[in-house]
User: Fold this.
Amino acid sequence: MGHLKLEILCLVVGSVVALLALNIDSALANTGSNADEEGGPVFVKEPPSKVDFSNSTGAEIPCQSRGTPQPEIIWLRGDGTAVGDVPGLRQVLASGALVFPPFRAEDYRQEVHSATYICLARNSIGTIHSRDVHVRAVVTQVYDTHGDQEYIIKGNSATIRCKIPSFIADYLDVVSWHDSDGNVYKLDNRGVFEDGKFVVLPSGELHIKDVRPEDGFKEYRCQTKHRLTGETRLSASAGKLVITDPQGSTAPRLSGDTQISGFARMGMKGSTFGLICPSQSFPPGIFKWYKFTDGSSRQPVQLDDRLKQLGGTLIIREAKVEDSGKYLCVVSNSVGEESVETVLTVTAPLAATVEPAVQTVDFGRPATFTCHYQGSPVKNITWMKNGKRLPQTEAVIRIDAVRREDRGMFQCFVRNDQDSAQSTAELKLGGRFDPPRLTFKFREEVLQPGPKVSLKCKATGNPSPEIVWELDSKKVTNADRVQVGQFVGENGEVVSHVNITNVHSNDGGVYRCTAISKVGSATHTGRLNIHGLPHVKSMDKAQVVAGSGMVKTCPVAGYPIDAVIWEKDNRVLPINRRQSVFPNGTLVIDNVQRNMDQGTYTCVARNAQGYTSRGNLEVQVMVPPKIQNFNFGEEPLLWGSQAQTTCIVSEGDIPIQITWTFHASDVATDSQKGISTTKFGHRSSILLIDPVTQSGNFTCSAKNAGGSMNYTAELIVQIPPRWIVEPTDRAFAQGSDAKIECKSDGFPKPSVAWKKAAGDGPMDYRDLKGSAPGMRVEDGNLVISAIPKQAEGYYLCEANNGIGAGLSAVIYISVQAPPQFEIKFRNQTARKGEPAVLQCEAKGEKPIGILWSRDGKRLDPKPDPRYTIREEILSNGVLSDLSVKRSERTDSALFTCVATNAFGSDETSLNLIVQEPPEVPFGLKVLDKSGRSVQLQWSESFSGNSPITRFYIEYKMSKSDWNSGKDRVLVPGSQTMASVYNLRPATTYHLRLVAENEVGTSEASQSVTIITAEEAPSGPPTGIAVEPVDQHTLKVTWKPPLREEWNGDIMGYYVGYKLASSDKPYLFETVEFSREVGKEHHLMISNLKTYTEYSVVVQAFNRIGPGPMSKEVAQHTAEGKPDHAPQDISCTTLTSQSIRVSWTSPPLASANGVIKGYKVIFGPASSWYDEKTKEIKATPSSEIILHGLKKYTNYNMTILAYTNGGDGIPSTAVSCHTEQDVPGPPTAVKASVMSGDAILLSWQPPSQPNGVVTQYTVYQRTVEPKESEATSQKIPSFQTTYEISGLKRKERYEFWVTAHTAIGEGQPSKSATTSPSNKVPAKIASFAEKIVATHRDEVKLPCQAVGVPAPEIKWKVKGQMLTQSNRLRVLPDGSLLIKEVTRKDAGDYACKAENSNGHDTIMHTLVVQAPPQPPSISLAGATGTAITVRLKSPSDSAPLHGLTIHYKQDFGEWEATQIPPNMSEYTLEGLNCGTRYQIYATSYNSIGTGEASDILNTRTKGQKPGVPSAHKFIEVSQNSVTLHLSSWDDGGCPMLYFVVEYKARHQSDGWTMVSNSVKPSGNYVVLDLSPATWYQLRVTAHNNVGFTQAEFEFATLTLNGNQVGPARTNDNGRGLLLEVFPWLPEWVDYNMIVAGCAMIVIIVVGLAVICIAVSRRNRGPESFRLRDEGLYAQPDMRGMTLKREFRDELGYIAPPNRKLPPVPGSNYSTCDRHKKGMNHPTWNGRRPAAATGVPHTYEELANGGGGIYYDDHPPVPPHAHSDDSSLYSKPPNGVPGQDEEICPYATFHLLGFREEMDPSKGSNGLTLPHGSTTLPPPGHGHHRGGSQSAPRGSNTTRYGRGPVGSGVVSSVAGGGTVGPNGIINPPNHVFSPEYDDPANIEDEYGYNSPNRRGSLGRRSMGSMRTVPIPESPSPPPPPPRPSDSPNSTPSHSQMNQSNDSKESNELSEAECDRDPLIRNRNSVSGGAPGNMSTEEMRRLIENRNQNEAHSIPNGLTPYDTVNV
Assistant:
């Protein structure tokens, strides 16, 4: 109906709706082309599958998704209906979250609080559903738990349960059990508790093993914890054990519930399960657990650390899905056995992933989505598309040919009964898909008949669409006047048109052009109206299916049309509610019925003139078929019977086609299958099945022209049982495993049961239970394990399924019995030296023969008289005795008695044990140890053939003795492994072992010594005190825990703090441990809230972890200033000089302390800006009366609260006005004579009016010649002059004036006296005034004058005569009017009145008040967070009210602050550190705000954090690294926090985040590291300026505290090149760049050398000219290579398989060292140590693979002097970036030199030259690939390292130390014994040792420090190289270049000439001898008597060792 209504509306609105439909279709078509820009919804935060919450807490379920456009979130119920808000109970937030607020119990609504919800996300791409969200609210109810009462037989294991009410059972967990003795049995973190006797199972039961009578006196209570609220409570009643004594032997029996149904357990993967087997018996049974592997076969459960058996309970820890299955517990004793099955289901969380997640497929191509899922169990798989269910249930969904409607979101859902999961994938349509789109559409037109008409549409699409035209729903084809054409344009557009020539009115109507392709369509509809008479076109017959709707539009032509109506049977429609007729001629009929709606309909069109046209429509209503219900009968049919049913079509038009299907397959008549169908008439079909053989669904389908219908009936067939395997008689040997098969089938499946005859005959069959042990039925088969004799008899197997009589079979099982020993094996003991008798009794059918054997050999008593055998025939068998006299140790053997008869044989074994005391245990060793326990293992010594009953582990502390200080641990004798507990951590113990058996005790074993491991501290720190430092800081002090509670070395402390009122966890800071004895630790906790109580705890930690927390210490921070002002301020005027002010206190939370009182700041409102006019009064109350105020004055007042921390924020000013009072006297009075009888009296208003002056009173009286009474005259308040006439000339008059307010008359003014006169000089009545005017206002300066004759008025402006203008002019009354007054107008104005009788002058001062001038602003200073500016305001006429400072940071918003006007400096605080700011200032007064000052551009101090050196920052230990955070340079800005990450050196994946909020104070310890491991550490320091990230490398120490060698890196220089040139792209081949650069350098250097050589051949100093000699290129041999033949002649020996020790006195040199002029001669190796104190020192180079040195030099070794840091800096003349090639010199072993390497011969003869006082920087030398080794002195290590935590550093080896002057002091030996004999190099230096050969990454080299000998000459320096720059410094990457030395032991020319292994490391250079022959060089070396150096012209001494 919805689609029908939509179509109706479309037809009503006509072409507008059609155009809208076209636009919508085009938009949808364009969606495919924009798929790359859009994305379907994907859940970002999907709600969980299960949400349980308490009504007291409520719940919020998040649901967030992403997509383009942003998806809309809608919540649905499980049935798909939308979820709305329920006030107070349910709300959907804008964020998409579904919120359930807390609610009252009576408001619980099941449809809200116990329902399934689904989160739906949708956008234009598609729709997705979340997993099912099962919401369950739990209403808090009163409940109690109770302990169970268990009846148990003594000696068995008991299980006490905690009874929990069913309504709360799902939310309560049993966490512990408490007994009446105070013991607590609490579940551990693995979900179980075990201490030997008591076991708490994961399901909550308390399992008590080996129950004793004393256990019955205890009570046991369970403690539960509510999973939702966290509430814990003990059970209301206690559980008890009722223990009974056994009454004879009892077979095992299970509890009643267990016997009936067994057990079932279900839980999550990783959980712990306890499978119980509650059984009682006497004697106590033996429990065995089995698991069924393939449904029927069972295997014993293999026990290990994860699967343990505790008594009869099987504990499964960390359960896996593979553990699921059926388990069998078998408990047996000597009386019988019993078993119980338990089904365990281990579930795993479900997860699903659909691949691919996004798939773009072209139209028509196939698409496949695969759902990968995990978890268990998986019940079903379903698919959805755009929120609608798909029929697929497989994990793979395939689309053979993608169509437009296939695009959207696909979802895979995986479900089981408890969980569900989903995953989404999006299918996009590829670029080939382009649905049709109309680019041009024809317009609607109204035309006159006659002209031609052309309608055109254009469309695009891929593939190209075809355009079809319709007129009134009929296809338009070519005709005489109508032509339809179509072509493809140049741009690929399809153009189609309809051309009509000589258009008629009948051509009008609704035209539609439709562009169609296989990927879609686009339509445009418009009407063409042709003027003419109405014409209804012919209409085709309409066929409508009954029950559907019919829509028909009348095809009308002509224009205009006044009305279109429909008629049927001459009645105008509509005639019923199912019919609707619309004005456009559309007829709609809903639910069409044949009898009412079939027939002829007439459409009538009429115009305004009454002309009509009619057209008929024939409507045929077709009825679809309807099938009557049918079935095969209510009862199931028997197999082989006949079934028949009839399918009858009760309604529907014929012909009707009727077909039958069986399970969706067509059913054809098949006599072999017995199925036949017969059509009966036109409307029925009969299905006949004879015989019936199978069940299934049969479907009848009926179809006609009107539709189709299906109906399905189920056929159920019952099949009686029939034999598959029928059992037969069987015979078995006694003791064998018997299995008799009995199998049958049928429907329903038959059940098979076995019974056994009670007597000897085949009758009275009974159940098998109790017939024989080990007898059971498995899958219908009778299985008897180890069949006994009593199992013989008749058995009955029955198969029955309720159909028919069933099957049964009787068989006889016979058991053949050979001889049998009741006891197969027994032990018999005898004391050594005593007699022993062995007996064996065989039962069975006689005759029975007995044979004895000893240890498998036949025993013959004749050779040994100590053995005697005797036999006795018994009624049921034979008894045989073997006697042994005087037992000896050798008699301990296994004696076997074998009995044989005709049916078989049996044997029994008797183990004779000759007992004696045990021997001493041996092999005592430690398996494991912890802080408080040690696990020992030993080898069991000879037990004396008596079971060792117990072992005693004796132990004591190392300081105690064995007599008084030992403790014992008793160990059962069956164990050879035990643990000793209750030890002290980190303590040395001695342990030994003693064995004991029933015969005696052994001697004690040898003792072992252990040191227990460290543990976390067991005690809290002591002496904790917390004191407030300021408003935001607390100081915490404490002392270490008690020494015995350290359990190791304390490494530091965690100080935690939180708000005392908060339930949130503590925030912890780390404090390093101080090793000073007795020192008190402290920590400043900052950034706290003001006057807030905090709780502080402290806990110590060592290498293992933290100890217990201390008790909370609560303390308040110091009081601060109140944050809020007092409230509700009101003021009341009391009198003219007093006001009452009242207020209320600020909110208590904002007081920040205890409010001590309040301060009231008040002053006149007119001068409120002036701080000097304000007064302050303090009061402790909330009310005050202010006295002594000015009368009739408006006062402003603010109130602030103050505490001990200071004054708080003042309130907003309120105003109050004092009352009026009587005014003060007028200021001045003038009496000016006007004539002989008149005087003009003028006055000024009172300076203190004290109110509003209402009037003045003028008093006058005569004072001369006589006084008279005063008279008065009232004058209005606006008048300040009064003309008094009628006076007498000769009398003198006195005048004065008073002012009046509403209160009364004020004080009189001073009096003025005068006398009238006929001579009236000029007199000015106005007063001189200081007149204040406002800028741009108009001002009038008064100058009222009197005099006779009338005086002349003249004005002077600032001393100059006034020139009048339009702006300045004199008024008729003499006043001066100034318009638009400006600052320039300010000044003195003089008015002069003059006549012939005199003159008078007054002076006015005009003050012009304007907005103030701009102030000047300058920088006074800046810090990291503040800027101080200096302000200067120019003086102005109007007083300043204040200044406003405006400031902003770059790209920020302007902020402003106001300051008082008298402040010359102001500090802007709280600024961002290291930030640029713009600042300017403005001034303001009562007039307004002036112009702004110039903008001051400045910045706060500070920069990003600076990286410290590695050795200052990092301190390393075995399992941790301490970071000294204070070593970072904060850049002038306070550190905010640190981010610490690390990873293993060669770890390829991401970094491990340690913390992203490390506070910058103190040290920080990174724990849980592995010993002897290289790590990379990444630290990011943040301050307000930004952040700095640095990476370090370090190696943890070994377990022995030693350091490890550096790790090698091999990135072929890639990291170095990226560091130097970070802009290089990733595709660059770095090897090629390096090779290319190296080639260029070689060519350039070669050309330069050739040029220099050629130029020097004939020019330059002689010493530098090239020679033609073959041996040396120059006298001093600098820069040349030894020829091969001369090298061989010199006796150079390079053994291929070993490396020679370093040549004493030789140092490898680089060309850079020579070219830089650094002169370092070699060391004199022949100088006696005693005489010179000169050793041969060696130093190991720092490996480039170590940490990055962020300073310019590696860390200083710990033994270096503090003043010698310069020795460890970069080389002053180093040239970064240059390769230091090895000079063409090689150090050779000259002939005879091997003998001179002998230390015994090294003190005589040849003395090598000494060095200069200049030392090279350490570590800057040629790094040979193993050609030299550091000597192993007794006081040095071979591979020394720097201080702990300093990364990879250089150190001095060979025992040398660094003196105060930086010179290395040698040890007291010349040669190390390491270098005594080259023939022993292999063994001495370990070159063949794998430990040495692997250390190629860290090679040693000769000493680069030579001992200065001032008297020795030095060779001249070589000429400097121009490229050497003294200002160059090595880069970080160069300092970390890795060592790429080869693992070769040969020293070749290539090795001598190769590139240096460590760049920027300069080696020591030495001199070279002159031009010598081979013989001369030999004589020079062999000359041992020459003691003085002789000068040689080339600068060498005869003692120089030649470096070739």
